[in-house]
Amino acid sequence: MCKSMEEAMIETRKMEDAVIALNMLKKGKFSFDEIAECCNLTVEEVTELAKDYNLMPV
Description:
The chain is an all-alpha fold. Helix content is about 75%, strand content about 0%. The protein has 3 helices and no strands. It has helices at about 5-25, 30-40, 45-50. α1 packs antiparallel against α2 and α2 (about 30-40) crosses α3. The protein starts with a helix and ends in a 6-residue tail after the last helix.
C-alpha cells in the first residue's frame, strides 16, 4: 500500500474516532478518560473536542 493511501486511512480513522467521542460527550455519561480509552484518543484530544463543541462538563 502506498504511503499516501495509508496516511489517508489513518486520518479517516482518526475522524471516525472523533465522531464517536463527540457522541459520547453529548451523552454526558462518560469520563474523558473512558472516552479516550474507547476511541483511541488522548485525554487532551477529548478535552479539545469538548471545548471546540461547547461540551465541557459543568
